Amino acid sequence: ELSIEGTTEASVQVTVYVDGALAGSTTAIPITEGESTSVEGTFHFISIVLTPDQENTIKIEARDSAGNTAVIEGVVFADTQKPVVEIGDIPEISAENSMEVKGNISEPATFEIFLGEESVAEGEGQIITETVRLEEGENNIKIIVKDLAGWEVTKEFHVSSDTQPPHVQFNLEEGNEYYQGRADTTL
After folding, report:
1. Cα dist. 71→16, 45, 81, 139, 173 in Å?
2. Is 83 exposed, middle or buried (0-12, 13-18, 19+ CB in 10 A)?
3. 17 and 72 in contact (C-beta within 8 Å)?
């Protein structure tokens, strides 16, 4: 749906067409300021129905009582769906301190990648290809995609980065007697 408001001469008949079909008609209401009335008027159209997921040609025609007309046209794309975001494989555990984030977006959009609460990359288009540096331990990665109509999609992932070899430390329990080839001890 689309709402339209504007100004023209007072008492002019204003008509809206969507793709050539009549969508609404009203008379411009004179603007009053205090006790004086202006020669200008306002008009409002609320909830003009558009055809979803395609371009709609909008034509607004103003006609005065003498038959004079003024016309303005424009095109509006009615985007009724959120973008579809497909992200490639994101591992749960990585032995690296960075990873490649790759993805596809179903329509032109902007994207921003966060590591925790910090923005680490942003861009626009239909392809995401960004390298994200990971911190040792648990990493929360969030990708926010927003299309031109304002629809927003969020994808979240958790990746553990483990770049350090394991470290083991132990103490042998000391004893009095050990026999060659048969020594046992408690750690």
Report:
1. 10, 16, 31, 56, 96
2. buried
3. no
Rg (the chain; Cα; Å): 33
* Residues 88-115 as b or e (16 or more Cβ within 10 Å = b): eebeeebeeeebebebebeeebebebbb
Pairing of strands 152-161, 93-94: parallel
Question: What number of other Cβ atoms are within 10 A of residue 58's Cβ?
Answer: 20
Higher pLDDT, 108 or 187: 108
CA distance 60 to 43: 11
Round to whole Å and give the CA distance between 111 and 122.
5
Cβ proximity of 83 and 106 under 8 Å: yes
In this structure, the number of other CB atoms found within 10 A of the CB of residue 34 comes to 5
Structure tokens at 8: 């023209």
pTM of the predicted model, to two decimals?
0.66
Question: Would you state the pLDDT for residue 165?
Answer: 87
Q: How far apart (Å, rounded) are the C-alpha atoms in residues 166 and 162?
A: 9
